[in-house]
Specification:
By secondary structure, this protein is α/β, with parallel strands linked by helices. It has 2 domains: about 200 residues, Rossmann fold; about 90 residues, 3-Layer(aba) Sandwich (Rossmann fold). Helices cover about 45% and strands about 15% of the residues. The strands form 2 sheets. It has a 6-stranded mixed β-sheet with strand order 1-2-10-7-8-9, sandwiched between helices. Helix 7 links the parallel strand 7 and strand 8. The longest helix has 17 residues. The radius of gyration is 18 Å and the shape is globular. The C terminus is likely disordered.
């Protein structure tokens, strides 16, 4: 397995990648909110608004890193996705003039499917879950010769997501803790490897799709439940093989949130900040405001709001 143990080496790689992809990504904002407004007694809360990234999520960082770092065949690229990764790969391929085929399951939200179509990629809907779409994409890869862009278990993907942590540390230095939603683990892997123990990294998973929780319990990646409100972004069945050793070394622990907590977090983000986040993008915030993660007095907390690809209705934005 490639060496990802050296956090300094990883930071150097991420810094180089950040320069490579900078012309194609947004430096997404960080906003400070008053902890007292949420009934929390920590020193500060910084929200990293990655839902404002091109294609609507952090996945765009990993997509461009892959497409700009690897040799692309004439057949183009293929990706399996719950939605956000597919949208990111489709967007990056459109910007770079590369053919892209995206496989998604039936659970993908209409907003994400429409995003993928809008970027001109070939879209295939296969199976009920991400794992089903992944199998179909692998068959297409073998038949077509297209390059597979994995949603999380690929070195380029992990390094690309690490650029989010690079930005966050510049924008909100000296954070004690960073809360990160977990699906396959590409995002938390990149963030945890970047900080390398210099800040505490806490994973947040829906109770109905506890991929990293089950891996920690078993001591290795294993199949987990893959359901719940955030199944189209945080339920890949198991955490990545490359991600797991990073998480075991640098992620302090994982906490679980209920679907109702995620819905509450979405509503709070809208009511208090006029931010419309998707369920998976709201999971980390849910852990904080539902007291699943309770910061200490004086703690400086960062929260990644990772995606915003959701259907907006008049009712949703007028409540």
């Amino acid at each position: 397995m490639p060496d990802l143990d050296s956090s300094e080496k990883f930071r150097n790689e991420v810094s180089e990648i950040e320069q490579r992809i900078r012309p194609y990504i947004r430096r997404t904002p960080v906003i400070e909110i008053n902890p007292a407004d949420l009934g929390i007694t920590c020193a500060s809360i910084a929200l990293k608004l990655e839902l404002m990234q091109y294609a609507g999520s952090f996945k765009t960082r990993g997509a461009f890193t892959n497409l700009l770092s690897r040799k692309i065949p004439n057949a183009g690229v293929v990706a399996a996705s719950g939605g956000n990764h597919g949208a990111a790969v489709a967007y990056a391929a459109m910007r770079l003039g590369i053919p892209a085929t995206i496989f998604v399951p039936t659970i993908s939200s209409p907003a994400k499917i429409e995003r993928i179509r809008s970027y001109g990629a070939r879209l295939e809907i296969r199976g009920d879950l991400y794992a089903d779409a992944l199998v179909a994409s692998q068959e297409f890869e073998r038949e077509s010769g297209a390059l597979s862009i994995h949603a999380f278990d690929q070195l380029e993907t992990i390094r690309g997501q690490g650029t989010l942590a690079l930005e966050l540390e510049q924008q909100a230095p000296n954070l004690d803790t960073v809360l990160v939603g977990v699906g396959g683990g590409g995002l938390i892997g990149g963030i945890a490897a970047w900080y390398g123990g210099r800040s505490r990294v806490i994973g947040v998973e829906p109770r109905k799709s506890p991929t990293l929780t089950r891996a920690f319990e078993a001591g290795q990646p294993v199949d987990a439940e893959a359901g719940g409100i955030a199944a189209d972004s945080l339920a890949p069945r198991r955490v990545g093989e490359l991600v797991f050793p990073i998480a075991r070394q640098y992620v302090e622990r994982v906490v679980l949130v209920e679907d109702e907590m995620i819905e509450h977090a979405q509503q709070c983000l809208w009511n208090d900040l006029r931010i419309i986040a998707e369920p998976g993008g709201s999971a980390a915030f849910a852990a904080l405001i539902s007291s699943v993660y309770v910061p200490a007095d004086g703690e400086r907390v960062g929260v990644v709001v990772s995606g915003g690809n959701t259907v907006v209705t008049l009712r949703a934005v007028t409540q």
